[in-house]
Amino acid sequence: MVIDLNKITIGTKIPELKIEPISRTILSLYAGASGDHNPIHIDIDFAKNVGLKDVFAHGMLVMSYLGRAITDTILQSRLKDFKVRFCSITNIGDILTCGGKVIEIKERNNIKTFILELHVIDQGGDVKLTGIASFEK
Amino acid sequence: MLDRTLIGKKYPIVEFKVSYQRLKFFSKATGQTDPIYFDHEYAKKKNYKGVVCPPTFLMVAGMEQDNFYTYLQDFNVAINSILHAEQEFIYNELVYEGDTLKIETMIEDMFDKKEGLLQFCTFKSKYTNQDNVHVATVRFTIVVR
Fold this sequence. Notes:
The structure holds two protein chains of two kinds.
Chain A: E1 13-18, H1 24-34, H2 44-49, H3 59-71, E2 79-86, E3 97-108, E4 111-121, E5 127-136
Antiparallel strand pairs in A: 1-3, 2-5, 3-4, 4-5
Chain B: E1 14-17, H1 20-29, H2 40-45, H3 58-63, H4 70-75, E2 82-91, E3 100-113, E4 118-128, E5 134-144
Antiparallel strand pairs in B: 1-3, 2-5, 3-4, 4-5
């Protein structure tokens, strides 16, 4: 549901988006769809050969989920900047939750800019990424 | 230590045509639920030029080159020693199915943290569409362990 921009104040949250558990199927589909064929995300033999227990999710997949949480709430055409810092690896089976809240509202030349602070956490509360987005009205 | 003389290096320009099929595949893989990201008729009804590229789709176009990981040769590091550290998209205009993007990428910066233990490199890409409109700027930062 798209949020009413007139009702946004500092502290307004975007609805949490909970993602189905990360599976090998999802990682294979994302590798194909995104063009990122790095074997570390799709080939368990490769991962083991370089000393990892298993493959792990593409950071951009996790950022894409967060993007969904934003565009579920705000028209994409209003989104001006979207940046994240990847904090920890997302493993197979992790259940991610995306969320965020408005931390600043600026107004200049009749254009309002809203700054969103964002995060993605897993089932244990481990932070996968943090981010900032800005959108305009 | 990464070779800092590479700062400013430009990579060959990549052209990428946003096909409906690829966009639909990406939307499926990332679990998009809003039909503007996969339903042509619905997007038109909502007054969009066509199916809309979701916010992170631009990275797909950036990956689409003979070997996205060419920079690993520049740095002389193995693929398993890098991690994606940061990502930024700055949007000017929406990108749609059917658009042809021109992507110009350069090494914008290199820096280190923890007394050189972690080395970072930021790539900056300028995305222009077929009408020569600068639609977005993308920053992609990796860390070498």
